[in-house]
Fold FAD-binding protein.
Amino acid sequence: MAEMKFIGGYPENMRELIEVVNKTRDKRKDYTPTAMTAEQRKEVLEVHPDYAPGGKRELSVGINKGDTGPNEVIDLLEAYPLIEPGDIDLTRADYEVDLLIIGGGLAGTSAALWANNEGIPADKILLVNKLRHGDSNSIMAEGGTQAADRENDSPAIHYIDAMGGGHFTNKPDVLKGLVEDAPYIIHWLKEMGAMIDQEDNGDYVERWGGGTCRKRMHACADYTGLEELRVIRDEFRTRGIGVFEHKPVIELLTDGAQKVTGAVAWNLETHEYKIIKAKATIMATGGFGRLHIRGFPTTNHYGATYDGPVVAYRAGAKLRDTDTVQYHPTGAAYPQQIIGLLLTEKLRSMGAQPVNVDGEAFVFPLEPRDVEASALIRECYVRDKGVVTPTGMRGVWLDTPMIDVKNGKGSIEKAFPGMVRMFKRFDIDIVADPVLVFPTLHYQNGGIETDPQGRTNLDGLWVAGEVSGGVHGKNRLMGNSTLDCLVYGRRSGISAAKYLKNGAQFGNLSLDHV
């Protein structure tokens, strides 16, 4: 077999297809496909993975019995626990704290800060993480954080955008809290030292997101989540708040009824159970990308395995919107080593166009994510106008060089330094050449049902971030995830602190629900 020849990171046959994109770029620079009508969106969503046959079933146990969800999710919710209750000695606790926080991303870490701000001493707060503190989807977030802080915008307009993006299934009061707190959150991040992109005059650089009618995306180049968590985690460590790493929580403890009283953690290094007694608990364990639902690759980190909803559900917590999954439209489809990694929506907001094998821009670049992802799938598998890689992966081109055409030379390197470096490892120059993309498993739309203060139906249990359900409904817009973590990290931390200051006491420790 002849050796495959590569030119600029691409095999020869793909290089020929890139030339088709290059030749049509000048014709496309002043053309953008029209946004879809409601009817057109409904039609294209028929190819969305959520609607494909055979991938879902009804939940047969618990408070949400009868709800549907992906098979991979239902398998976990119906599974037997990892422990035998009789093997755990609950007569004494290894640790006693006022506030236990499970999860160390943006939501959990910010919750700890806000509880401390409200008067809960640092030595009475304990954050427990499955991996290292900060190993999370948060640090992989690239595109930005939404906040309506311009004169032509308002939280009400932000609310309408998010409600439409969620197909009007969002919990109204929870979404209201998200959009109302957003401008303050950006101010708080800036005060903490986050390097948010600014114009020369000091105004924030704000860009479009899919499904938005105003520019309100605040970014830190293309490592927004990493930068936001940097300043928040630094403050966390400065305050001396307790943290356990490599200790996943494998069950919640209750008082035998509807009150959460702590958790059982597993020490990955010593292989020992640790009993944590807590007056209040905040769950912030993130999403489920590593379940690889329907076999999709994912943008998520290795700890995103749906632990939080599973243990909370066994304790009696109510879930919602378990039936929908968000697939980000533009995951890497080439090279093989990075398949599924996130190529932020910000690329499209700055001018990069999805382009098919014939060099045609076939979809409005900033449709809501479920619509955009469906359009890419349709182009590859229904219309057969995708590009096939040497491994058989299909995708369409994302014409990244168009960003410099529309915004001036150097715009890509300034706005996406991390992405430029990542592709250069594979000898691909995204300034000169397009990249191949296909939808990738990205976000858990639903989760543990929350109220506007992060409370659940269980006494003593709060939720924040991707583990929660209600704020996004059945589809999330770009920039509302990091915002969710920060707003509901704050709200849950404050609410739990008030609960503690109102005289909350330790409860009995039981695994009867298991």
User: Anything to note?
Assistant: The longest strand covers residues 272-283. The mean pLDDT is 97.
